[in-house]
Amino acid sequence: MKTIARSLLVTLPLLCATVALAQHQALTLNPDSSDVKFTLASNHDTTNGTFHVEKGTIDFDRNSLKMSGLVVVAAGSGNTGSSGRDKKMTTEVLEAAKFAEVTFVPQSYQGSIAPAGDSTIQVTGIFTLHGTAHDLTVPMQIHIEGARCTAKTHFEVPFVEWGLKDPSWFVLKVAKQADVDLSLVGSLSPAS
């Protein structure tokens, strides 16, 4: 009986520590598998393009609904398939030479993240574009399979309202907001 009690005294704290670590995890992004796609409408046509995710890590705790970390996108990596349009977007609208990074710093979330399978949450954080920080809350669909995690969201960026140059000119009228689809793929590990 004493042996069982001793075993429980040793095993129980280890089990509790393992459960606590499983609640606090870190998602380390794989930039080659992650992407940012955007759509910008105009009276002429719709522009579709991409941006490159440079790096990112997101820590989350299932017990406290807190998040932290940083997702970094290269402002100068915009690609629409038109070199002239890309140059104007990079140099005149985004001013990537001066504001090289677009970032998102998650702070909290609402909902619950299942240890495996699909979850839908609302993530709140700070989105910095063109050197200016904006509060942003986005819906996020998460899929966890083993150590692999995919997080996807769709949101609008009202870039003209946020102080960026309106790319409209003469007869070309461009929407004042861009639709963004963000797909983050990476691996999960216990947060340190």
Tell me what you see in this structure.
The protein has one domain (22-190): Lipocalin (Beta Barrel). Helices cover 17% and strands 51% of the residues. The protein has two helices and ten strands, in the order αβββββαβββββ. It has an eight-stranded antiparallel barrel. The protein is elongated, with a radius of gyration of 21 Å. The two termini are 37 Å apart. Residues 5-21 have low confidence and may be disordered.
In short, what is this structure?
The chain has 192 residues and is of the alpha+beta class. It has helices at 2-23, 83-93, and strands at residues 24-29, 35-41, 46-51, 53-61, 66-74, 101-110, 117-129, 132-145, 148-157, 178-190.
